[in-house]
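Problem: given the chain below (445 residues), write out its structure.
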Amino acid sequence: MSFPTHRFFYITLTSVLLILSHHGYGYNTCTAATGDHLNYTIIGAIIDPNSRKGKEEKTAMTMAVDKFNNDSNNRKLYLVLRNLTGKLHQPALAAEELIDETRVQVIVGMDTWQQAALAAEIGNQAQVPVLSLAASASIRPSSQLGSPTLIQMGSNVSEQISCISAIVHSYNWRRVIAIYEDDAYGGNAEMLTLLSEALRRVGSEIEYHLSLTPISSVVSDPREAVGQQLLKLLSTQSRVFIVLQSSIPMATHLFQEARRMDFMGKDSAWIITDSISSFLDSMDTSVIPYMEGALGIKSYYSNSSSSFLEFSTQFQKKFKSENPEEDNAHPGIHALRAYDSIAVITRALERLGSDDTISPKMLLKNILSGSFSGLSGKIKFDGGNLRNSNSLPFRIVNIVGKVYTELDFWTQDLENPFTREADEKNNVRNTTRTMNGTVISLQEK
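Solution.
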């Protein structure tokens, strides 16, 4: 008879929700199916709900979970949220709690690759997949780094570094200043090494690197603290500044002080990476003018496809209701990757038989063998790393006033990454060493 099965499922489901509630997790409820063979998968998400990135990720992931639950009759998902606090070992502690107590079958999230690696150490012991939404600085597959369960969903920093060196080479800049907001994990050291090696290959070098104290550790006036650190650059010769990594609050103070101290004059050049430029569409418009003249590297994604437009409409409505304090509700690359991370899991589940018992090991195998076109681009993995098959992975943009203009695209498949034209076979080829657009500085109104 079916009644005992229904009763058993109700008791089990109730127990799960009580566990989640007891430990302070957010969860996404759904209407249980009435079939006898309903399977549910618990997904743990470790994010920073107070950051713009975390807010976008939460909204996007809950949308993806809701869609799957509405469409599926025999499987359901439960999303368990765990907050990133900034403490050094917190990702590992959160992962341990999610796996041992909440019994999640997969973990998604993290802001840095180092946080993801800490969570993956715990995931490896239980063979629980960890899908990292953070950018990776390593060019080696996760499986070669001793983390077979760590799966990269974010971009690879090394690709951005290659793009930066191409820009530097295009303008014949010989020396640059590298600026980054420090973190507790030491992840910037590898980024500096990659940048130094990439610049050396094009005949340039890092003259000086400035490490900014994390904004969360500044007890006094953060803008004044940034200004004091920028004084160290007065004696440097180069006026080419590359902001490798920064939170949005830090970037705001950095550019305000840089402009006040005349580091952004007509003889200066600034390049910002995706850690800042990915938020240009959602950033406070009163902040953007301080960055005027800067070049930005933005992850490419199609914002005109029917799937994106449909997602964007739904996302904006939900995001506004959940985050009324945010002025801009447009989804960025972080929302798209978060949505795709759930899609990776659901497609792995769909490849299982309806009666198959879900194990983390089986789920990991199906995730790594999956391939589909997501909102953020083509999703296919190679040794745990997302293989970027986008023909145009980065946009090069120039900040002008309160907006930005698109100058060109970049792909490392070309010897020269900028101005290109199509030949008679419609193949893209390089033609010159300069970008299509004009870089507009503060003085060029």
